[in-house]
Design a protein that fits this description.
Residues 305-383 form the Mop domain. By secondary structure, the protein is α+β, with helices and mostly antiparallel strands. The protein folds into 2 domains: 3-231, Rossmann fold (3-Layer(aba) Sandwich); 237-385, RNA polymerase II/Efflux pump adaptor protein, barrel-sandwich hybrid domain (OB fold (Dihydrolipoamide Acetyltransferase, E2P), Beta Barrel). Helices cover 23% and strands 36% of the residues. The longest helix has 17 residues, at 166-182. The structure holds adenosine-5'-triphosphate.
């Protein structure tokens, strides 16, 4: 199975110019800022819009080829499409919604396959209900089922989780994982959410202003620092304000103040040769720190003989178990008394990603005063001058 895209299309102010190929099954994330052309691109693949120029080939069949005047209608493209909102037929039961595409398929799925899809999506108990009686997550699962029963060669998912709250997302993500792992169907998955992409996708196409900035394996793309402005952070993390208080040019470091705690980062230019200066002696510069959860370790006492420069007192706000036996630990900066709810509300929060094993070995508890060992801090490149 492969999908070859090479199209150009003007839609209002958007000049779409996309060229990439997907050759393997699995999930390819179509990722990019709002307005970068993701929906326009998958609408072109589905046949909902006719590009100005180019070709779209699915499984060796040209479904669009402007030069040869080929533009197959959507129902002939063997494409399953799941929209942001489920778009089920409100007057039909779940069963009839599911069988809608199946009845029109030239090559319908055998009953055993249908049962397997219904079981995989966990919708067997919903078959006699109308869409109005379904939760958002259930509607999206039925919508996925309806697309699959059409026996598509490729599945297009346009932000299928964006209208759902976190609990509903957590409910449906395992079904998308099962779809990826069990059905070996190529899936083009439009998403804004890098955590969803990191969790689900094998490959990634990064779009910006209608063009493909990069495509490749999700790990390669997320490791590319040049794409960071588009891909953002890979892990949960924190963005918190800080003030530049001084520089040590000889030492190649800059001193920052973050809610009363000093942090040291590689020299930020242009440097002022002071070491560390009182706040009133220089113009302060505001910046934002990006501290990724995977770059933070937790120690119950101040560690000795350690290369990390940034060890800050923190108070555990909460611990949240993650997949793969991981644990996200939210930490207030500073050693706060447990009864100072108001102080806690205003203290910046950073996150540490540790193993559940470490959390239980250290017996970490909410309210506990510990130390965050920050291995790496990314500083927003754009420093803003401000008068002290
Ligand atoms: N038919 C149209 N007429 C005018 N402008 C259009 C049309 N279709 C798309 N656009 C414009 O193209 C741009 C890209 O839209 P598109 O929905 O493809 O982006 P997107 O990356 O999917 O965005 P989002 O993530 O917000 O859904 C938008 O600025 C939109 O206004």
């Amino acid at each position: 199975m492969n999908l070859e895209i090479d199209i150009r299309h003007q839609a209002g102010m958007l000049a779409l110019d996309a060229c990439f190929t997907i050759e393997r099954p699995g999930i390819t994330a179509l990722f990019g800022p709002s307005g970068s052309g993701k929906t326009t691109l998958i609408n072109a693949i589905a046949g909902l819009i006719r590009p100005d120029d180019g070709t779209i080939t699915i499984n060796g069949t040209a479904v669009f080829d402007r030069k040869n005047s080929i533009h197959l209608p959507p129902r002939q493209r063997r494409v399953g499409y799941v929209f942001q909102d489920a778009r089920l037929f409100p007057h039909l039961t779940v069963r009839k919604n599911l069988y809608f595409a199946h009845r029109r398929s030239p090559n319908p799925l055998p009953n055993g396959e249908i049962d397997a899809i219904i079981a995989m999506l966990g919708i067997g108990g919903l078959l006699s209900r109308r869409p109005i009686k379904l939760s958002g997550g259930e509607k999206q699962r039925v919508s996925l089922g309806r697309a699959l029963l059409g026996k598509p060669d490729i599945l297009l998912l346009d932000e299928p989780l964006s209208a759902l709250d976190q609990a509903r997302k957590d409910e449906i993500l395992p079904y998308l994982e099962a779809l990826r792992d069990q059905r070996r169907l190529p899936i083009l998955y439009v998403s804004h959410a890098i955590d969803e992409v990191a969790r689900l996708a094998d490959n990634m196409v990064v779009m910006e202003n209608g063009t493909v900035r990069a495509s490749g394996s999700v790990f390669d793309i997320l490791a590319r620092t040049d794409l960071a402005p588009l891909t953002g952070q890979f892990d949960t993390g924190a963005v918190i304000p800080a003030t530049v208080t001084g520089h040590d040019t000889a030492g190649g470091i800059t001193f920052l103040d973050c809610a009363g705690h000093q942090l040291i980062v590689p020299l930020l230019g242009p440097a002022t040769p002071i070491a560390p200066a009182p706040a009133t002696a220089t113009r302060l510069r505001q910046t934002r720190l990006h501290i990724r959860a995977r770059d933070v370790m937790i120690a119950t006492t101040i560690p000795d003989g350690i290369s990390a420069n940034n060890i800050v007192p923190v108070t555990i706000r909460n611990l949240q178990p993650l997949d793969h036996a991981g644990m996200d630990v939210a930490l207030h900066l500073g050693h706060l008394a447990t009864d100072t709810a108001n102080t806690q509300k205003h203290a910046p929060v950073i996150h540490a990603r540790i193993t559940g094993y470490s959390a239980s070995r250290l017996n970490l508890q909410p309210g506990q005063q510990v130390y965050a060992v920050i291995k790496s801090v990314t500083v927003d490149g754009k420093l803003r001058d401000t008068d002290a």
